[in-house]
Specification:
Layout (H helix, E strand, L loop, with lengths): L3 E7 L4 H11 L5 E8 L5 H8 L4 E3 L5 H12 L3 E4 L8 H6 L4 E5 L14 H10 L3 E8 L9 E8 L6 H24 L3 E4 L2 E4 L5
Parallel strand pairs: 1-2, 1-4, 2-3, 4-5
Antiparallel strand pairs: 5-6, 6-7, 8-9
Helix pairs in contact: 1-6, 5-6
The structure holds 5-O-phosphono-beta-D-ribofuranosylamine.
């Protein structure tokens, strides 16, 4: 099967990007990262890309959409991965890549997600609510915020003495497994969207 060109959109430290790079290097994903794009000029994720010889581009948040679309087309991206990307994608881009944009969110959607729920804020809300489990969700992106069809989820326990930081660290470990797994399934052509459901086809032997 032809390798899928993967564009990774980032805003921060890029540990999810690193997990993807590492998984590809282990031969677990039938794809290659063709470009890393950030809306933050000093995102360390851009440095991670440069270290691995991956094209890295900073796009100013003001004229994001048109530049994003042209960079993605030029890179011939077949899949867009949001790995800690903080800007909201424009409707035009989501339509252009419908069913080909995957996001990783650090909670069990539909809990603690949507407008304003990103990074530590997600874990602070979970700890303050007193939930007993949280986790991570890999999902397709639709025109809402964190509302697209769910691909994979995995839980983590939440302890009474947890802080947002201790929970974030526990969930991040899960993200680093879940995102590469979801991207790998996509690149093997094993994901089928049926309404709100994502059907995962058995691995062909
Ligand atoms: C993390 O909070 C992660 O939960 C979310 O994006 C943030 C940045 O992650 N997905 P990264 O280290 O930049 O990948």
């Amino acid at each position: 099967m032809r390798k899928i060109g993967i564009a990774v959109l980032v805003s921060g430290g890029g540990t999810n990007l690193q997990a993807l790079i590492d998984s590809i290097q282990k031969g677990e994903i039938n794809g290659e990262i063709v470009i890393v794009i950030s809306d933050r000029e000093n995102a360390y994720a851009l440095e991670r890309a440069r270290k691995h010889g991956i094209k890295s581009v900073y796009i100013h948040r003001n004229n994001c959409t048109e530049n994003l679309i042209s960079e993605l087309k030029e890179a011939n991206a077949g899949l867009v991965v949001l790995a800690g990307f903080l800007s909201i994608l424009d409707r035009e881009l989501i339509k252009a890549y419908e069913g080909r944009i995957i996001n990783i969110h650090p909670s069990l959607i539909p809990a603690f997600c949507g407008k304003g729920f990103y990074g530590e804020r997600v874990h602070k809300a979970a700890v303050e609510y007193g939930v007993k489990i949280s986790g991570a969700t890999a999902h397709f992106v639709d025109e809402g915020t964190d509302s697209g069809p769910v691909i994979l989820q995995e839980t983590v326990p939440v302890y009474a003495d947890d802080t947002a930081e201790t929970l974030a660290a526990r969930v991040l470990k899960v993200e680093h497994r879940l995102l590469p797994e979801a991207v790998g399934l996509f690149c093997e052509g094993r994901l089928r969207i049926e309404g709100r459901k994502v059907i995962i086809a058995e691995k062909e032997v």
